[in-house]
Each structure stands twice: as structure tokens, then as C-alpha cells.
Specification:
The complex is a heterodimer of chains A (141) and B (321). Chain A contains 2 helices and 7 strands, in the order E-E-E-E-E-E-E-H-H. With 141 residues, chain A is of the alpha+beta class. A 5-stranded mixed barrel of chain A has the order 1-2-4-5-6. Chain A is globular, with a radius of gyration of 15 Å. With 321 residues, chain B is an alpha/beta fold. Chain B has a single domain, classed as Pyruvate Kinase, Chain: A, domain 1 (3-Layer(aba) Sandwich). Chain B has 7 helices and 5 strands. In chain B, strand 3 and strand 4 form a beta hairpin. In chain B, helix 4 crosses helix 6. Chain B is elongated, with a radius of gyration of 34 Å. Classes of the chains: A alpha+beta (141), B alpha/beta (321). At the A-B interface, strand 1, strand 2, strand 4 and strand 5 of A face helix 1, helix 4, strand 5 and helix 6 of B.
Chain lengths: 141, 321
């Protein structure tokens, strides 16, 4: 099992299987635990995932960007399952829209500081990061 | 006079033909939507399977202690029924099936001296149940054709709230399960508290080599479980909504197919009646002409008739002229 060069990842949202394929490394972010990377042969793991920009190293060397809007990650038998409430591929995200959503969320943040607003800000941030449009936006959050 | 009847029949045939065109179109649309709805049901399966797996693994890791989702209440006083129907009619017995099953459960509860609350999903459920004065919770409507996961999330949040706040002790789903394109059935499925079998998998999985207590958790298993179980409930509701949508289209296709067939039958019968009426009026006309001609020829005025018709009168033999 451990000599296998890669392992499998399934990114599943309630409405469809977003991505399924071979990978060599995955970085995501768990709730309260910060970023975590999985390499082949990782021990069985179960975690709650927060809104984040997940990076998946594919077998051919390219990096796939995903915006994950909360969910769970399970690792067992060299298979990573990312169960997400909403998952978007970076290249499917409209950068302009994501940027506007981020600005809106930041604006709201100034007036009311609720968990909901905070979550939408994190979501917007994750989307923009996954779309590769974060350059130029302040990273102070 | 006789022509009047013919015209009325012609008008009716035209109107039935127009109706037939509409029902035929609805049949075809429903038919194409079944396929799409079926694909959506299939697309949602991986998520619900995986989330079930995760819950099982969690319980295998010993996380399932005393989560309120899993603890059944010994004394069930109030049951919440989530009745999933369509927003529109014209789908045969689809809505009535679900509503009748719901009413049956309510009556049984009332007879046993228990309370109930109905959460109507779909305009038809709300209209029907409100008119009859049932005790309703919040209604959800406007998405029965193609439900999105966000719809399931809304419903899930609401019923989980009802359950956790103690307003209800049990939540059950009433919906139409899509077995195949030719077979759907109304089912009643417990939703919260979660079924024991989910937790009972604990013992099974301990035996299996791949799962068990050797998972790493982040954050701790209890927090994962607390955010996981609402998601699990939502996934169950979503699956029910998708099944209901597929069933609705199947029911509508069947209802519209029989409506089209009926229209065809009606057109056939009306055409026959109309043809008979036309034949009758023609015969009557000929008889009148013949009768008139006879009467005139006996008065030796046959020439007048032939000049009136502008042709030779076949009923008057030429040698008499």
C-alpha cells in the first residue's frame, strides 16, 4: 500500500461527485486545527473541514485548486474522501463575482459581526484563493 | 337545424384536440424530466453513502456517546411529519397518496392521545392541510420540480430545531419513493432520532479490520459528530426530495398519457357522431328535394324545378317533358 506512488481522492458534494482521481498530495484546512497535508499512506483520519482553499497535487504534476465550503475529510486505506457542503473547482469560479462577494462580506463585517457573516467572508476568501484571484487583495484576514 | 348540431360537434372536437395537444406536450416534458430527475437521484447517492460511512466510522471510534440526535425519547408525545408533495396538480394520485398517508398517521396519533405537527413541503400539501385545519408548522414550497440541496438544508435546520428544542419528540418523512419509472410508492421513514442501526454498525465495524478505533480525529470526535449529524439529516431529506421529484414526473407522465388517450377516444367518438349528423342532414336534404320534386312533377311543373337547379332534374324522366 505504501509503495504506491499516489492515492485516490474523491471530492463529493451533496449534488454531485465534483472530482475523483489520483493524487500525490492534498492540503486542506480542518476546523480549529489549521492546514493539514495528506501524503500517500497517511494514517486513518477523520476531521471536520472549514471553508478553505484546498490544493490537490495530481499525478501529472499539476496542482488543482478547489474551494471547499465546509465539510468533512476522511482518510482510510489510502483513499481520501472530502465530503463537502459545497465544492467548486478553481477554474469554474468567476473571479469577478468572487471578488465582489468578498467586498460585500467585508462591508458587512464592519457593521455586524455575526457567525454567519464571518462564514460568508471565509467562503468568499476561499473561492477567491482557489480561483487564483487573491493577489492584490489584502491578506490581513 | 341539423347543420347546427354538426357545427357544435365540430367545435367540441376542435377544443378536445387543443386539450390533447397540451396533455401530449406535458406528457413529453414529464418524460424527459424523469430521466434528469433520475440522474440527480443517482448523483446524490455517493454523498449520502459516504456520509453514512463516516457516521459509522465515528461511532466505531467511540464518539457516539449521548448525542441528542441518537437518543430516542422514551415517551413520544409529539410527532412531526414532513409531507413532501408537488407544487402543481395534474399528476394523478401523486399528491393524494402522500396526503392520505399523512392524514392516516395523524388520525392514528390522535386516537392514541398524542400530538402532531405537519411540515408541508410543496404547495399542494400546504393548501390541502391548511384548508382542513391541521396543525401546521412552517411550509416549504416552490422547488418540487427540481429541488436543490439548499432547500433540504432549510427544511433540515427547521426540523432539527423543532426536535432539539423539545417541541417534537420524533420526526418522520412522508414521501413517494422512486423505485423505477413504472413503480413508485408512498413511504413513511423515521428521520430524527437517527436509526439505531446506524449506531449498531459499531459492533460490526469493530470486527472489520479496516475500521475501528484507530482513527485520528481533528477536532475531537464529539464536535465532528455534532456538525456531522445535521448534515446527515439534510442528506436524507435531500434524497427524499429528489425521489419525490422523480416520482412526481413519473406520475405526471402517466396521468398525461391517459389524458391524451382519453382525448383521442373522445375525438373518435365525437367524429363518428358528427359524421352521422352530417350524413343525416344530407339524407334529409335529399329527401326534401325528392319530395318536392315529386310533388311538383305530379303537378306537371317539372320544368320549373330543372330550371331552378340549373341542370337536368334526374328525378324527372325526360319523355314526360
Amino acid at each position: 500500500m505504501s509503495e504506491a506512488p499516489g492515492f485516490r481522492i474523491d471530492v463529493v458534494s451533496p449534488e454531485r461527485v465534483v472530482f475523483s482521481g489520483e493524487t500525490t498530495q492534498i492540503i486542506t484546512r480542518t476546523m480549529g486545527g489549521g492546514e493539514i497535508a495528506f501524503l500517500p499512506g497517511h494514517a486513518a483520519f477523520l476531521g471536520a473541514v472549514t471553508e478553505n482553499h484546498t490544493r490537490v497535487w495530481l499525478s501529472d504534476g499539476t496542482i488543482m485548486n478547489l474551494a471547499i465550503h465546509g465539510g468533512f475529510v476522511e482518510v482510510s486505506n489510502n483513499v481520501v474522501t472530502l465530503l463537502s457542503d459545497g465544492a467548486e473547482l478553481g477554474n469554474e469560479i468567476d473571479i469577478e463575482r468572487a471578488r465582489r462577494a468578498l467586498e460585500r462580506a467585508e462591508e458587512q463585517m464592519r457593521t455586524e459581526h455575526t457567525a454567519e457573516v464571518e462564514a460568508s467572508l471565509r467562503r468568499a476568501h476561499a473561492r477567491l484563493a482557489a480561483a487564483g484571484g487573491l493577489a492584490g487583495v489584502n491578506a490581513g484576514h | 337545424m341539423a347543420g347546427g348540431q354538426e357545427r357544435i360537434l365540430r367545435g367540441r372536437i376542435r377544443s378536445v384536440q387543443a386539450t390533447k395537444k397540451i396533455t401530449r406536450a406535458m406528457e413529453l416534458i414529464a418524460g424527459s424530466r424523469i430521466v434528469k430527475a433520475q440522474q440527480r437521484v443517482a448523483a446524490a447517492v455517493p454523498y449520502s453513502e459516504k456520509i453514512t460511512d463516516v457516521v459509522k466510522h465515528l461511532s466505531a471510534g467511540g464518539a457516539v456517546g449521548n448525542s441528542p440526535f441518537l437518543a430516542g425519547r422514551p415517551d413520544v408525545k409529539t410527532t412531526c411529519y414532513v409531507a413532501i408533495t408537488a407544487d402543481r396538480g395534474l399528476c394523478g394520485g401523486y399528491n393524494t397518496g402522500v396526503l392520505r398517508a399523512t392524514e392516516g398517521e395523524i388520525k392514528a396519533d390522535l386516537a392514541a392521545g398524542k400530538n402532531y405537527i405537519v411540515v408541508p413541503v410543496g404547495r399542494k400539501a400546504e393548501g390541502y392541510l391548511r384548508f382542513r385545519g391541521y396543525n401546521l408548522g412552517q411550509g416549504f414550497a416552490g422547488f418540487s420540480d427540481a429541488p436543490a440541496h439548499s432547500n433540504a438544508t432549510e427544511i433540515g435546520k427547521y426540523v432539527v430545531d423543532l426536535f432539539l428544542s423539545g417541541q417534537v419528540d420524533k420526526v418522520e418523512l412522508v414521501y413517494t419513493r422512486f423505485v423505477s419509472a413504472g413503480n413508485q410508492e408512498v413511504v413513511l421513514r423515521p428521520l430524527v432520532p437517527l436509526e439505531r442501526e446506524l449506531v449498531a454498525a459499531k459492533t460490526d465495524d469493530h470486527g472489520a479490520a479496516d475500521a475501528g478505533g484507530d482513527y485520528e480525529f481533528e477536532p475531537d470526535p464529539e464536535s465532528i459528530l455534532n456538525s456531522l449529524l445535521p448534515r446527515y439529516v439534510e442528506a436524507r431529506i435531500y434524497a427524499a426530495l429528489l425521489n419525490a421529484a422523480a416520482s412526481e414526473h413519473a406520475f405526471r407522465q402517466r396521468a398525461m398519457k391517459s389524458a391524451t388517450d382519453n382525448a383521442e377516444e373522445l375525438i373518435k367518438n365525437l367524429s363518428r357522431t358528427m359524421n352521422r349528423a352530417r350524413q343525416d342532414s344530407i339524407t334529409t336534404e335529399i329527401m326534401e328535394i325528392v319530395g318536392g320534386a315529386e310533388a311538383l312533377s305530379s303537378g306537371e311543373d317539372a320544368i320549373v324545378i330543372s330550371s331552378v337547379f340549373g341542370m337536368e332534374n334526374p328525378f324527372v324522366s325526360s319523355d314526360r317533358v
